Amino acid sequence: MTRPTAQIVSLLAKYTPCDVSDALVNFGSKTGGYIPNLVLRSATSSQVAGTAYTVLYAPKSDPRPAVKQSYIDEIPENSVLVISLPLSCQRASAPYVTVNNALYGGLMSTRAQYRGANGSVVLGRIRDLDEHEELGYPVWSYGVGSTAPGPVAKVVGINVPLEVQTGEELATDETNNDDQSNVVTINPGDFVVGDKNGLVVLPASSSEFVSQVVEYIPKRVEADKHVSEDIKRGKGAAESQKFWRSKI
Question: Which SUPFAM superfamilies does UniProt cross-reference here (predicted)?
Answer without folding.
Answer: RraA-like (SSF89562)
